[in-house]
Amino acid sequence: MNDITLCEYQLLELKQFIRKRGIREEDVVIEILDHFACKVEELMNSNIHLPFERAIQIAHQSFGKSGFRPMIVNYEKHIQKMMWQIFKNECKKVVLSPKILFLIAYVISLYPLLQIGSKYLHGNWLFDAELIGFGLVVLVTLLYSAVIFFKTKDGFQLFNFNTNKNLLWQKQVMSIPKIPLIAVIVGISLGNKLGNPDLYFFLLCCFSVLTLIRSLAIYQTYLKMEEQFSTNKFA
Amino acid sequence: MGKEKIIKGSLSVLILQLLQNNRVMYGYEITKAVKEANKGKMQLSEADLYPTLHKLESEGRIETESLLINGRVRRYYKLTQQGNKASIDPLAIVKEAIRSL
Description:
The complex is a heterodimer.
Chain A lengths: L7 H13 L5 H21 L5 H10 L7 H27 L2 H23 L4 H28 L11 H31 L2 H36 L3
Helix pairs in contact in A: 1-2, 2-3, 4-8, 5-6, 5-8, 6-7, 6-8, 7-8
Chain B lengths: L2 H7 L1 H12 L1 E3 H12 L7 H13 L3 E8 L2 E8 L1 H8 L1 H11 L1
Antiparallel strand pairs in B: 1-3, 2-3
């Protein structure tokens, strides 16, 4: 006797059944569909007179009182946890990358040089070069962050589950250009109050580098997530 | 606290052991195997299994591979190196069971 295998039309019907119960995320639909189809096939094989529609009802009951809902809730948690884990790892990788280490070392060494320069080299070309160095670090890091912002701006919508948790990532991306802007405004007023423009320049530089590290890590997280989703999904 | 709660708490350990023995398994296969292993002692719904699988995946103990079977995508679960280590270390199994409670 041949085992019953669901046809394309029946699978489509199961898919619609799952979607009607509020499961829109394709990855979860895929996971539930195979499990659901296996259960329906098993029921129909154990009782060949069992109608397809009745088998669907029985198979759905096996998911418990809340149906598919716990699965989608858990899946969202799983994805968020995965994103944070990737983000943390990427932050570490970015900080330890030679280019960023060099940039950090450059910024740290600039501050004492700037203080010496402001004492002894005022009006000297070397002092101007140091100031330009600071300016360049800020400009380049902010420009680079802006590029990343535009690349990832709509990206996280790919992993859209219509939940607040996902909006959190969207907000993370949207904050990329806002944070440095706020820092510049606060920094200028603080620098004026403190009467120490060197410190202000230095802090602004540090902040720019931190923004860059954060932006790069967000971008890498986005790329990793995209890769993860594309390997898990079939066209 | 009933026996059922203890068995549910050790579900991840059970899954790791199943994957250690069978190498690669898909969701429905695992559910059936877990139910068989418990001989109906606990009422395990499908909704209980997948959270545990996802948890193990986010912890890096298992990984997935998707294949097209009978016109639908089937996700296969297998142990990672880290998961492999955990499933053969008996002390880790006991610790994991207690921790998950």
